[in-house]
Amino acid sequence: MTDLAYATGWRVVRVLPERVAARVFTAAADAAVRRDGRGVRRLRANLARTVPPDADLDDLTRAAMRSYARYWLEVFRLQDMPRERIIKGMRMVAEPRLRAALASGRGTIAALPHMGNWEHAGAWLAANGEPFTTVAERVEPASLFDRFIRFRSALGMEVIALTGGERPPFDLLADRLLAGGTVCLLADRDLSADGVPVTFFGATATMPPGPAALALRTGATLLPATLWFDPDGWGVRIHPAVPHTDVAQMTQALADAFAEGIAAYPADWHMLQRIWRDEPATAAAAEPVEPVEPASCPPPAGVET
Questions:
Q1: Residues 150, 292: contact at Cβ < 8 Å?
Q2: How far apart are CA 52 and CA 45, in angstroms?
Q3: What pTM did the predictor assign?
Q4: How are beta strands 221-230 and 157-161 bridged, if at all?
Q5: pLDDT by residue (tens digit) across 226-245?
Q6: How far apart are CA 165 and CA 149, in angstroms?
Q7: What is the pLDDT of residue 194?
Q8: Is there a contact between 261 and 226 (Cβ–Cβ < 8 Å)?
Q9: Strand 203-207 to strand 108-112: parallel, antiparallel, or no bridges (unpaired)?
Q10: CA distance 116 to 137
Q11: What angle, rounded to 10 degrees, do the helices at 38-48 and 18-35 form?
Q12: Where are the alpha helices (DSSP H) in the chain?
């Protein structure tokens, strides 16, 4: 039924006029806010840490759910989007940092939070002639996982499964980087038990060690990037490269860059899961997880975090 729902959504949304589809997704987001389910409550609690105490959390949560709905609308329609729109609709801040890293031949790791439309950012990179590799978390049913793999492959991405492959994903990603390739990883939510403690908006969170560990293993450039939606397009900021020191310091540098980007565009941070360690974990297992989202990989055995 899950696979059927996504398959139906892909077919229906792709044939609807864009404005009609956008109104439908906006209405669905507003309805979700009114229901105030567990995911919406978690989103509101997360957003409360990113804005001043006097911010209107009701308006911010509604805007964030509409942003998240726009992400899914664009995912369903991205395969049909003209290449020219994918490229020209992107506003890239500090693009020379990315171009320099790609031209260096040392390998490039782009680490992103769950902001804006990371699928579009990947499509933009591929459309500019820069293929890259990412990692996807397996979900059930397998047919749904395969559907998302086909979708991302059609956009020009190489997708490695987080689990169940013949080789550990960390080793495969290291091979791509040592060959001068590019790896893109979502890096603001820990999917393992090996998370690195970081200070994030003034409290302790854990983030995955994979991006920093890969950079240290391969010598690749580690670039934080934050994303947002413009009214008629998309925005990405390329932050300064993270110096190679150790996993803990480098992961903290990623957290600092993510916090800067999220503070500027809090409504475009789609975090419906638990992040901070000072919050109760009782409801965490029941909170929603986006299906087959790109994931950051765990470090190899023996890497100190």
A1: no
A2: 13
A3: 0.90
A4: unpaired
A5: 999 999 999 999 999 999 99
A6: 14
A7: 76
A8: yes
A9: unpaired
A10: 20
A11: 90
A12: 2-15, 18-35, 38-48, 57-77, 83-88, 95-104, 118-127, 142-154, 169-178, 210-218, 247-264
